[in-house]
Amino acid sequence: MTSGFRLVRIAGIDIFIDWSLLIIFFLITLGLGGGLFPSLHPNWDPLVVWTTALVAAALFLASVLLHELSHALVGRAKGVEINRITLFIFGGMAHMEHEPNAWRAELWMAIVGPITSLLLGIIFILLGTLAAGTMTLDPDHPEQVLAQLGPTATLLFWLGPVNIILGLFNLVPGFPLDGGRVLRALMWGFTGDLRRATRWASQMGQAFAWLLIITGFAMLFGARVPIFGTGPVNGLWLAFIGWFLNNAALMSYRQLLVREALEDVPVSRVMQNSFVSVDPAMSVSTLVDERLLHSDQRAFPVVENSRFIGLVCLHDIRKMPRDAWPSTRVSDIMTPAASLTQVAPRDDTAEAMQILSQRGFNQLPVVENGQIRGLIRREDILKWLSLYGNQPVSAWK
Questions:
Q1: C-alpha–C-alpha distance, residues 203 and 274, integer Å
Q2: CA-closest candidate to residue 169, choices 96, 64, 258
Q3: Is omega for the bond preceding 176 within 30 degrees of 0, making it cis?
Q4: Half-sphere exposure of 186 (CA within 13 A, CB side)
Q5: Is 86 helix (H, G, I), strand (E, B) or coil?
């Protein structure tokens, strides 16, 4: 997920908002402002209704952010580097630089998210009770009790159960939900085999995903399901969530297999060591005419006095007007070496692959003692996997 924008930085963690989050924000606001709140409070002014709905949607997304922050902070305390959180249509994701190294670290990192959501739910309900004050209760007419609530109490009483549902949903033992990670951690601790634990947890995740898909299609044909209700909109949404979870469960297990296949394989084994470098004083027009058009290379290391000082890519050239190419030097448009993510020849290829995947890069410079040794590209790693991925580790070295 690379689309979106950086919202804020909290405790050294960059919070990114994916554009797809606008969809869920719109749906929550529309559902509350156009349906639930007017039905509970028909006498409310439309401005009050929609303002309360907007605040509710914003606070719900803030609750999701707190859920993910709890994962990130506990993960850091357990030795897992997390520098970024992305909020998107299905919730949030804390981007880990690497998987936890022990099952206990995985367990605590996974369980803290649902606990945070459950605690938030309880806190919101308690605050709602305080905001409601003293009310006359009529068991025969509960709608009259709800109608007595003001905007603040209504907002809090909606946020409370929603966070509790979010916490309980994430506790479902299906990978990659938090409950699935808890299950994987426990099986990992019991068997001592991360791959087997991931496979079992992934299969549980797929089973739960297919249950959601089947339930969603049943709702399309009029079935009524507790909590989720009925109807084509709710049914399609539930089936879509199931489809997403099924793909995520499959992908998580495949990523583990790829990571295991690439562990202990040095970058020097996979990188492209035949490449063309350019001089910083070269004009962009010369770079295009004499280098770019006569090579399938998309990124060119910039070298001065045998030192690697930067990287110039096709993307850098495209940002410039064509008539400025002759008068612009490569050094004017390159990305300096200090701003680049670099790997060393002896680094694991698994680490390089993770950087490429998480940060959306196409290639990484391989640098040693300030000198460029090669470029490692996503397609090089995939080619290596297709040739050696199914062989024993001893055959890769």
A1: 43
A2: 64
A3: yes
A4: 13
A5: strand
Placement of tokens 């002759």 in the chain = 326
Report the alpha-carbon distance of residue 29 to residue 38 in Å, rounded. Answer: 12
- Angstrom distance (rounded) from CA 59 to CA 52: 10
Cβ atoms of 165 and 114 closer than 8 Å:
no
Amino acid, single-letter form, for residue 44: W
Q: 375 and 275 in contact (C-beta within 8 Å)?
A: yes
Paired residues of 85 in beta bridges: 15, 94
**Integer Cα distance of 232 and 217 in angstroms:** 8
According to DSSP, the residues that pair with 17 across neighbouring strands are 5, 87
375-379's contacts with Cβ under 8 Å and 24+ in sequence apart are 375/271, 375/272, 375/275, 375/297, 375/299, 375/301, 376/267, 376/270, 376/271, 376/272, 376/343, 376/349, 376/352, 377/272, 378/353
DSSP state of 225: B
Tens place of pLDDT for every residue, the chain, 397 residues?
A: 446 778 888 888 888 888 888 888 898 899 888 888 888 888 889 999 999 999 999 999 999 999 999 999 998 888 888 888 888 876 777 777 777 888 999 999 999 999 999 999 999 999 988 888 766 555 555 556 667 788 899 999 999 999 999 999 889 888 888 888 899 999 999 998 888 888 888 888 899 889 989 988 888 887 877 766 667 777 888 888 888 888 888 888 887 888 778 878 899 999 988 888 999 999 999 999 988 888 888 889 999 998 999 999 988 898 889 999 999 999 999 999 999 999 999 998 888 888 887 777 888 999 999 999 999 988 888 888 888 765 444 434 4
- Mapped onto helix, strand or coil, the DSSP state of residue 365 is strand
What six digits make up the tokens of 49? Answer: 């209704």
Torsion angle, alpha carbons of 198, 201, 205, 208, to 10: 170
Which tokens hold the place of 133? 């004050």
Task: Determine the 3-state secondary structure of 40 from DSSP.
Answer: helix
For residues 281 and 330, the answer to whether their CB atoms sit within 8 Å is: yes
